[in-house]
Records
---
Amino acid sequence: MDDRVVMLDWDAADAAAYEVHEEEGTPCTALIGPLGEWVLTYEMDAGWRGENRLTELSADGKAVALFVGPTACTFQYAVAGEVVTRLVSYGPASREGARPDALDDLMRDLVWGDDREFASAGLTLAERLTGERFDWDWFTRKRRFVVYDPD
C-alpha cells in the first residue's frame, strides 16, 4: 500500500486522482469513509480493484461491490469470504455465485438495462442490503484519499 493518505472532499479528490493518473500512469485511488455501520470505499480514476478483492474484504463480515464501466457492469455481494450473488451486465439474467437467487426479493422491482439503469439499480440494491443511504452528502465531507498499488 502506498503511504500517501490525506483527507480530501470530492472536488479535491477528483482533481488529485486525475493528477496522479496523469503523472504516474494507472495507480489506484479511492475515497474511504464510514457509511453508518459500513465502510465505503469509492474507487476513482483507474481504480476498479475492489470487486477483485471482495472475498478478502468480506472475510470477517459482509461486503458489496458495484462496478459500472463503459463495457461492463457488475454487482457483487459477499459474506464470510464467499461471493453469494454476482450480477453481470445486465442484471438478474446473468446471475452467478454460491446462491445466485439470494437477492431476488430485494430486486424484483429494479431495472437493470443500460449502464445508468444498472448503476441506479445497484445503488438501490446496496441500500436495501446495508440499510444505509449513499447520497451526495457523503462526498461533501472530507474523507481519506488513498493512492495505492493495485497488486
Note: The CA atoms of residues 74 and 84 lie 13 Å apart.
---
Amino acid sequence: MAAKRRAPVPVVMAMAAAAVWVAAVMEATMAATYTVGAPDGLWDMQTDYAEWVKPRTFHPGDKITFTYSPELHDLVEVTRAGYDACSNANNISASRTGNDVVPLTAVGTRYFICGLTGHCDSGMKIRVDVVAAPGPGPAAAAGPTSSSSSAAPSTAAAVVAAALLLLNLRLPLW
C-alpha cells in the first residue's frame, strides 16, 4: 500500500492565508452603501423617509450616505427622545459636510434629523433599524430574532476556523 502524500506545511499555510483573504474580500463586498433618499431624492425636505426606509434592510457593515446642500441643511444623530421631540439639544453627533457617510457598525436603531429650525418638524428625520444578517441553518429560516447575542459567526471567522483545522490536522491535499 502506498503512503499518502501530505502537502508541505508552507503550501497549506499559503492556502489558508488565501482562503482568509478571499473571505475578507467577500465579506467586505457584501456590505451595502445606501444614499438616503435616492434615487428620487436626497437629504431634503421633500423626501418621505419613512417610505424610503421601508423596503430596505440594514446590516452591520453597511453605510448610509446623506447628500445635501450644507448651506440649507445639516445632519444630527440623536437619541430616540431627540428624534421624537425633533430636538438636537443632546445630540450624539453633528455634521455639515453635505456628503456625510455613516457606518452602521452594530445591531440597533439609529436616529437622524436635520437640526435646522423647523426641518425635522417638516419630516426631515429618519429612523434606521440595523439588524443582524441572517446566518446559516434553521434559525435563519425562522427570521430575525430579538436578541443580537445569538448572531451567527461571520464568513471570515468560519474560513479562519477551517484553515486552522486544516493546519492542525495537516489533511492531505490532492
Note: Residues 19-29, 137-155 have pLDDT under 50 and may be disordered.
---
Amino acid sequence: MTGFGITMVGLSVLIQRRYAQICAEHDLTPAQAQLLCMIKDQPCGMRELAPLMGMERPGLTGLVIRAEKLGLVQRDSPGRDRRAVVVSTTPFGQKTVEALYADIDASVPDLLNDLPAAGRASFEHVLQALAEAMKSPMLHPKPGAC
C-alpha cells in the first residue's frame, strides 16, 4: 500500500499535468497563468507580487516583460517614484484569464469522474477545508492585498 504522502504527490502531479495542458491550450506557460491569476481582480505592485508568487524580483521582472510583450499585462509607475511598478492585466489578458479560470473549473474536476458522487462530494468538502486552513494567497486572494 502506498503512503498518504506519496498519494498526495501523485495527485498533485496529475493536477499539474492537467493545469499545464489547459495553460498550453491558452498559449500560456503555467508561470504566465499564475501571474494572470494573481492580478486578475486588481493590479499589484512588483514588490508585493514577488513573494506572493514565490519568485525573486529579477525572475518576476523577466516574466512580466514576456507577458507584456504578449499583450497580457501592462506595467505602470504610479506617482513620482518610477521604480515602483504596478502590474495589471490588459483587456486581452483579462479575457484570457477569465477563459483560463472557466476551463480550469470545467476540466480539472474531471480527474475525479471515476469516484462515486458521494466520494466526490466528500473529497470536495475536505479539499475546501484544507484550502481554508492553508490561507494561501493563491487560494484566497484578498482584495487590497497588493
Note: The first strand starts at residue 44 and ends at 45.
